Structure formats: structure tokens, C-alpha cells
UniProtKB/TrEMBL annotation:
<keyword id="KW-0560">Oxidoreductase</keyword>
<dbReference type="InterPro" id="IPR018517">
    <property type="entry name" value="tRNA_hU_synthase_CS"/>
</dbReference>
<dbReference type="GO" id="GO:0000049">
    <property type="term" value="F:tRNA binding"/>
</dbReference>
<comment type="similarity">
    <text>Belongs to the dus family.</text>
</comment>
<feature type="binding site">
    <location>
        <position position="61"/>
    </location>
    <ligand>
        <name>FMN</name>
    </ligand>
</feature>
<feature type="site" description="Interacts with tRNA">
    <location>
        <position position="88"/>
    </location>
</feature>
<feature type="active site" description="Proton donor">
    <location>
        <position position="91"/>
    </location>
</feature>
<dbReference type="GO" id="GO:0102264">
    <property type="term" value="F:tRNA-dihydrouridine20 synthase activity"/>
</dbReference>
<feature type="site" description="Interacts with tRNA; defines subfamily-specific binding signature">
    <location>
        <position position="297"/>
    </location>
</feature>
<comment type="similarity">
    <text>Belongs to the Dus family. DusA subfamily.</text>
</comment>
<dbReference type="GO" id="GO:0050660">
    <property type="term" value="F:flavin adenine dinucleotide binding"/>
</dbReference>
<feature type="binding site">
    <location>
        <position position="130"/>
    </location>
    <ligand>
        <name>FMN</name>
    </ligand>
</feature>
<dbReference type="InterPro" id="IPR001269">
    <property type="entry name" value="DUS_fam"/>
</dbReference>
<feature type="binding site">
    <location>
        <position position="167"/>
    </location>
    <ligand>
        <name>FMN</name>
    </ligand>
</feature>
<feature type="site" description="Interacts with tRNA">
    <location>
        <position position="182"/>
    </location>
</feature>
<dbReference type="InterPro" id="IPR004653">
    <property type="entry name" value="DusA"/>
</dbReference>
<feature type="binding site">
    <location>
        <begin position="207"/>
        <end position="209"/>
    </location>
    <ligand>
        <name>FMN</name>
    </ligand>
</feature>
Length: 353
């Protein structure tokens, strides 16, 4: 996978978000929400696995702890055409912990080795692992030392993994909720840098607290890739410069302005409406597109109060409503100061995995 990616986030990085992000960046690697292996094996797998071809490169993130079930799910993911399969070893939520997967898997590196080995035997595409730099279990016992982190990575390498996405915080299980686990444990970027120094042959991607391309460029001096989570939700326009600044290629024409992005999203919205998908399932991902600019609050408010609540939209009426809304947003507006941006934002980020 590439230099820059968007983190898998539950209830957010669905196929509609991924299409929206593709209007901003052609090269950023995209991830599904975490999909439990049971949902693929016993549920409506097409609902969870379908995507638009423009989403490539796109990675399927799996959650689970049974090597046979995860191998079967990985094989199904490959059949769907995903570019890689990622094993979630970083989610700290209580529900995931009780299922003995997510970050709790870090307590048993040998078991993780068996899992990724089985997954690698089942597919020909890369199997990657997303994890924390350590964990502290609800009993107070933890695997927080650097040596234990190296043991975990080495176990995964023995199972055939060469690409790691490392959230630069420990996960405190059972005592902190997911939101707290994103802020209370301190970021330890130097630990991830050290991991890259000790495993130069591995692709090490850093995650956690990265909010701008400037920060991403600084991290790329020390590691191989950057994963951005919450900032991809509340300031998505940052990706409009990603192709040029990170990949050295031309930015998409659709990323020329916020209004261009919204207009480019409409043909996709029409297709989803034809399938009976509610308008807000698609347009909610554009709610923070104008973040930091005059008119951002108006755009969000009118989406919520006028667009999202209505259920009888047609292609003609939704296009007319969106154009009328865009006409209320000033062109070429000067960005707000940081304090004004914070005052105008009401977005609560989802859980990143």
C-alpha cells in the first residue's frame, strides 16, 4: 500500500465515504470499516464488501480471533478484489475485547502469528496488521514495554506479515472507552520511529493524532507511511492536496474546490437513490467539507435541517436544493482563524480502529 491512508472507522468509512474521498485524492489508500469475520461468513457479505472500482487501492479490515474463520473471510475478500487484508489488533472497545479480538489480541503474539499465517496461506494479496504500541489489560497486567512490542511484531513477521500500521499509543482495556483511548494514553511517536529503525526491512506506517499534511510530511522522514483517522472526518478537504504533496502527481480536477467536490458527488448520489439509499447516507460525509471557511456552519445546519430529514427527494429536486445551498456559500472565502474553526465545529469523530 502507499504513503498515505485513511484509517478504518466504524460507522464512517463505508463505501459512500470512500467514494467521496476518491473525489479528493486518487492515490490515498482507503479502508473499510472493521468487518467481523462472522458478518462475512454468516451475514449479508455483499452489503459489507461491495465497493466502487474507483476506490482502489482499498483494503478490507477484518475483526476476529479464530484463524480458520479469518482465513476463510480473507479469501472471500480477495475474491471481491480487495488490494490487501488487514487484521485489527488495535481496537480497544469493550465489545471487541469481550470477543477476544482487536487490541486484546496483542496479549497473545503466538496466537496472532497463527492467525496471520493462516490468512497468508489462504490469499495471494498482502496481509497486514494494525495494532497499538502496547496494551494494559483490565486486570492491570500489560504488555507495554518496547521489547514486548518487538516480540509482537516479530511473531507477525514469522506469520508472513511485512506491513504494519502502528497506532502510537497503548490501549488501556476495560477502563477507558474508545474516545478516551484516543486521547488519554500519550502519543509515543518515537517508539514507532524506533520500530522502523530496528525493522528496516518492514513497511511501518504510523497512526495517531496526525491532522495535517504538514505533520504527515514530517513523519515520512522517519517511517514509510502515514494513516490519518479523525482528521479525515472533520477536515476532509486536507486530502485535496494529498496527491500532489505526498505522491508528486496532479490533484484531481474534482478537488479544485469544495463546491466542485459536492457537484462531482451528485451523479453517485443519483445512483444510490435509484437503489433506495437515503440521501443522508451519502451526503453526511460532505458535512465538514467547508470546515474552517465562512459558510461552514450554514452548510452543515441546512444539510441536517432541510436535506437529511426529507425522504421524498427526486434527482431533479435534490440537485436543485444542493445548488441553492451552494449558492449561499461564498466563493474563494478566506479561511477562518483556528479559534473560529473550533467555535464553528460540532463534529464528533467516530471510533477509529
Amino acid at each position: 500500500m502507499g504513503l498515505l491512508s485513511v484509517a478504518p472507522m466504524m460507522d464512517y468509512t463505508d463505501r459512500h465515504y470512500r467514494f467521496f474521498l476518491r473525489l479528493l485524492s486518487r492515490h490515498t489508500t482507503l479502508y473499510t470499516e472493521m468487518v467481523p469475520d462472522t458478518a462475512i461468513r454468516f451475514g449479508n457479505r455483499h452489503k459489507f464488501l461491495r465497493y466502487d472500482p474507483c476506490e482502489h487501492p482499498v483494503v478490507l479490515q477484518l475483526g476476529g480471533s479464530d484463524s480458520v474463520a479469518l482465513a476463510e473471510s480473507a479469501a472471500i475478500g480477495e475474491e471481491y478484489g480487495y488490494d490487501a487484508i488487514n487484521l485489527n489488533c488495535g481496537c480497544p472497545s469493550e465489545r471487541v475485547e469481550h470477543g477476544n479480538f482487536g487490541a486484546s489480541l496483542m496479549a497473545d503474539p503466538l496466537h496472532v502469528r497463527r492467525i496471520v499465517e493462516a490468512m497468508n496461506q489462504a490469499v495471494s494479496i498482502p496481509v497486514t496488521v494494525k495494532h497499538r504500541i502496547g496494551i494494559r489489560e483490565r486486570s492491570g497486567v500489560g504488555r507495554e514495554s518496547y521489547d514486548e512490542l518487538k516480540q509482537f511484531v516479530s511473531a507477525c513477521v514469522d506469520g508472513g506479515v511485512s506491513h504494519f500500521i502502528v497506532h502510537a499509543r497503548i490501549a488501556i482495556l476495560g477502563k477507558l472507552n474508545p474516545a478516551q483511548n484516543r486521547s488519554i494514553p500519550p502519543l509515543q511517536y518515537e517508539t514507532v520511529y524506533r520500530l522502523k529503525q530496528d525493522f528496516p526491512e518492514l513497511f511501518i506506517e504510523i497512526n495517531g493524532g496526525i491532522r495535517t499534511l504538514e505533520e504527515a510530511e514530517l513523519h515520512l522522514k522517519h517511517v514509510d507511511g502515514i494513516m490519518i483517522g479523525r482528521a479525515a472526518c472533520d477536515t476532509p478537504l486536507l486530502f485535496a492536496e494529498a496527491d500532489h504533496r505526498i505522491y508528486g502527481t496532479q490533484n484531481p480536477e474534482t478537488a479544485e474546490s469544495e463546491k466542485a467536490v459536492v457537484r462531482a458527488l451528485l451523479p453517485y448520489l443519483h445512483l444510490q437513490m435509484d437503489e433506495g439509499i437515503p440521501v443522508h447516507h451519502v451526503l453526511r460525509h460532505a458535512a465538514n467539507l467547508f470546515y474552517g471557511r465562512p459558510g461552514a456552519r450554514l452548510f452543515r445546519r441546512r444539510l441536517a435541517e432541510e436535506i437529511f430529514i426529507r425522504r421524498d427527494w427526486t434527482v431533479a429536486t435534490i440537485d436543485e436544493a444542493i445548488e441553492e445551498l451552494l449558492s449561499c456559500i461564498p466563493d474563494d472565502a478566506v479561511p477562518l482563524r483556528d479559534d473560529e474553526q473550533l467555535a464553528s465545529s460540532f463534529f464528533t469523530p467516530p471510533v477509529d480502529r
